[in-house]
């Protein structure tokens, strides 16, 4: 799937490519994409990405990234455009904007960012690609050759599943004819995204120099990568002139030193641990301490404690956690780690108590919701789990994993029809309408349905089938 994602990102921020050339798999009949078409295309790509093992689904990392992203969006002039920021497990330095406001960041980039302002600079740049509708503008500029290029790219992307090498060759061949005519326009896109991104950084209270420093490091990374890169990667316009243009714009701005938030620091420590084996993560932190790092800094304490929990070295983890609580007593990730430690050492009652305490302090955290309900289900408290999930779903309607947990709770309570209804809503919120229809059809055959539940299920099935018919008509209309 890494090859598939790489193929999709033909207009990405860094070393390879950006998604301006993403194929609309249903084909297109006009030169530009409407906002509805951009959303549909983005959802179609995201359905593929979310189903892959390289989609990094840790809710705490995702929530941090979305909080940072929306702080920038609020100052980006994007109007009512919705965004979703997500993480892809990949060691390369890359970030990308998909049509419809979906912005992905590689784990390698998150770890490589040396300050929160650098990470904010990357996100601000990608947000500008979305708010300025660069994907649609690219298609308008390439109206004469967009259609055959997208058709060929669609075939290449699908071929990537079974033959990554062959797919890469197909993509390179497809791009060869179009890349030169695109390069000047994509340089304009990049400069516009840089300009808009700098404005967003300043308005959001970050150091705009973070964008320049990170891009300079990307330029060095690109030079290192170039020896093995396909030709179309080497034409990506991350140029010295572009970096110089950013630095020129910085000349008139006052110097601003912005300290990193504790959220940024702990997020990176968490990410480092989750990407390593438990043993390697412990060894990494032990080596840092041996080399002179202060063992009582919050990032070292948090990272090492989490690594010890994952390595099941619980006695040491308790000692480190006690030290961590003195340094950072009220942080979300410290509450979560307390509950996780008790859960992993087999104290389910203690874990439930810790989750409740955490939720009392951080009631809106998705990660805490998930951990609490999962522990209730594991402890055999399915009704309590169902009550909590149902209450949360009245507030948060679009959380697919909460619906998944609701389905598990109904299954534990032997409520078959409601189980499949809940699973259907989980699929709806992942964009998989076909799978949702299948679940509703199973629900209608369940033996425990009463008149009301069967009627409401039939009504929901009719709604989803209408959505599927509309999507088919839209694809057919674009082909015509």
What does this structure look like?
The protein has 480 residues and is mainly alpha-helical. It has 2 domains: 2-250, no CATH class; 383-480, Serine Threonine Protein Phosphatase 5, Tetratricopeptide repeat, CATH 1.25.40. Helix content is 69%, strand content 3%. It has 23 helices and 4 strands. The chain has helices at residues 2-8, 35-50, 59-73, 107-112, 116-131, 134-141, 146-159, 164-203, 209-225, 231-234, 240-250, 262-275, 278-290, 298-310, 314-327, 332-344, 348-361, 366-378, 382-395, 400-412, 416-429, 433-444, 451-479, and strands spanning 55-56, 84-88, 95-98, 102-106. The chain has a 4-stranded mixed sheet with strand order 1-2-4-3, sandwiched between helices. A hairpin with a 3-residue loop joins strand 3 and strand 4 (102-106). Helix 1 (2-8) runs antiparallel to helix 7 (146-159) and helix 16 runs antiparallel to helix 17. The longest helix has 40 residues, at 164-203. The protein is flat and about 70 Å long.
Task: Please summarize what this structure is.
Helices cover 69% and strands 3% of the residues. The protein is mainly alpha-helical and 480 residues long.
Secondary-structure blueprint of this entry?
Layout: H1 2-8, H2 35-50, E1 55-56, H3 59-73, E2 84-88, E3 95-98, E4 102-106, H4 107-112, H5 116-131, H6 134-141, H7 146-159, H8 164-203, H9 209-225, H10 231-234, H11 240-250, H12 262-275, H13 278-290, H14 298-310, H15 314-327, H16 332-344, H17 348-361, H18 366-378, H19 382-395, H20 400-412, H21 416-429, H22 433-444, H23 451-479
Parallel strand pairs: 2-4
Antiparallel strand pairs: 1-2, 3-4
Helix pairs in contact: 1-7, 3-5, 5-8, 5-9, 7-8, 8-11, 9-11, 12-14, 13-14, 14-15, 14-16, 15-16, 16-17, 16-18, 17-18, 18-19, 18-20, 19-20, 20-21, 21-22, 22-23
């Amino acid at each position: 799937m890494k090859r598939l994602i790489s193929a999709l990102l033909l207009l990405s921020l860094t070393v390879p490519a950006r998604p301006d050339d993403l194929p609309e798999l249903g084909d297109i009949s006009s030169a530009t994409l409407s906002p509805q078409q951009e959303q549909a295309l983005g959802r179609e790509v995201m359905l593929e990405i979310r189903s892959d093992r390289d989609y990094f689904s840790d809710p705490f990392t995702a929530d941090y990234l979305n909080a940072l992203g929306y702080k920038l969006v609020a100052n980006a002039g994007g109007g009512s455009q919705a965004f979703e920021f997500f993480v892809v497990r990949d060691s390369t330095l890359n970030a990308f904007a998909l049509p419809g406001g979906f912005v992905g960041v590689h784990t390698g980039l998150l770890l490589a960012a040396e300050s929160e302002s650098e990470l904010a600079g990357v996100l601000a740049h990608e947000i500008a690609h979305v708010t300025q509708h660069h994907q649609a503008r690219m298609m308008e500029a390439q109206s004469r050759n967009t259609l055959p290029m997208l058709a060929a790219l669609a075939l290449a992307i699908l071929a990537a599943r079974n033959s990554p090498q062959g797919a890469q060759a197909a993509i390179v061949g497809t791009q060869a004819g179009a890349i030169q005519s695109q390069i000047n326009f994509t340089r304009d896109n990049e400069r516009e995204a840089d300009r808009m991104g700098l404005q967003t950084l300043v308005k959001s209270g970050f150091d705009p120099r973070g964008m320049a420093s990170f891009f300079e490091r990307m330029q060095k990374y690109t030079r290192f990568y170039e020896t093995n890169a396909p030709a179309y990667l080497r034409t990506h316009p991350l140029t010295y002139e572009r970096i110089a243009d950013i630095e020129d714009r910085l000349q008139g701005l006052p110097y601003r030193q912005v300290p990193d938030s504790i959220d940024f620091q702990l997020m990176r420590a968490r990410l480092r641990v989750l990407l390593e084996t438990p043993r390697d993560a412990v060894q990494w932190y032990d080596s840092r301490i041996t080399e002179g790092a202060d063992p009582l800094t919050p990032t070292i304490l948090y990272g090492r404690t989490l690594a010890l929990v994952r390595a099941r070295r619980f006695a040491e983890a308790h000692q480190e956690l006690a030290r961590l609580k003195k340094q950072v007593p009220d942080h979300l990730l410290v509450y979560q780690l307390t509950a996780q430690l008790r859960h992993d050492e087999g104290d389910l009652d203690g874990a439930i108590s810790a989750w409740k305490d955490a939720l009392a302090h951080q009631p809106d955290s998705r990660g805490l919701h998930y951990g609490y309900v999962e522990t209730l289900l594991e402890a055999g408290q399915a009704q309590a789990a169902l009550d909590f999930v149902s209450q949360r779903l009245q507030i948060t309607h679009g959380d697919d994993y909460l619906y998944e947990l609701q389905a598990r709770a109904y299954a534990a309570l032997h409520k078959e029809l409601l189980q499949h209804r809940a699973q259907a809503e989980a699929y709806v919120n992942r964009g998989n309408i076909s799978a949702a229809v299948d679940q509703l059809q199973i629900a209608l055959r369940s033996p425990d349905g009463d008149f009301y539940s069967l009627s409401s299920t039939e009504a929901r099935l009719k709604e989803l089938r209408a959505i599927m018919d509309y999507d088919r008509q839209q694809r057919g209309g674009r082909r015509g």
